[in-house]
Amino acid sequence: MGKLRDSADVRALRFAVGFPLMLAAGFVVCAFLIRSDLPEPLAVRWSGGVAVDFAPFGSVIAAGAALIVLAGWAVLVQAVPLSRPAIMRRIMMGMGLSVSLFITTVLAAVLVGQLGLDGADQAQVDVAVLAMGSGAALGLGVVMGFVFKADERWSTEDDRAMEAALARELDPDLARDSVSLWVHARSSVFVMLGIATLLPAALLTIAVPWLAALLAALALLAAACLFARIRVDRAGLRVFAAGFVRVADVPAAAIEAATPKDVKAADYGGWGYRSHGTATALLVSSGPAVVVDRSDGRTLTVSGGSATTADNIAQVISRVAARAHRPGNGTTL
User: Which residue has the higher pLDDT, 19 or 208?
Assistant: First the structure.
């Protein structure tokens, strides 16, 4: 039992097993309450608006109850494992509720459509029951997805967070030696980019759709190149173009100096990532930047946002580089 509680949400498991069973039981009871008003056998399949297949009352009820239970279990049980993300468990719980209720609605519409008939030849599915029940099933499923509280347990992410918290407690300067910053071009640049690409793309949508899609894709690519993420910690400096493509990784021990500087993108070949000989640059605009001198003679220039943030980044880089150069000092993440 202890192992089960460590790997599964017991409350969700009880609901996943019990709800389809109770729903199927309710369907069976209601079916027997109206048994005397139903024909024998019952219509179970229609073609062109005419009933073509029939089955005995007992077989229809047994198969319907089994379908409610098995389909409900198949979906609801997906919300039980604690190893799955909470959002996925919420979705599966809501979907399982909707599926179970929808199947019950279909079965109820089949039975109600045959009430009072002497024979099932003229039977039809009750559209009103089907429509109202389907809407209720969908709505209740959405509500269940929002109200279901996924049972949170200690995970590997919590272990890493605990290790980071302990490291900060043992080394108060660790937080000062870490900085993460997003930099991007001025808003006017994005406006001009949109005017130059998206406006013509909109005009070409009707005439040449593929060209319009190509222009829109190029606009998104160009806009992404005008974003960058800078990450500095005791391991060194890492620069990501568009926020996720790593274009520079400089270990702290390989850094000689870092200097804030006001630069012109044109002097480095323009905006974006540039590499010429021993000089590498990732600039999203002209203005404040940080120039990093490496011990192998190469330089790296990255946009620093404002003058204040560029100066702060340079100070942090210089500090972690000085720490890395101390005798007997290792790099600590």
Answer: 19
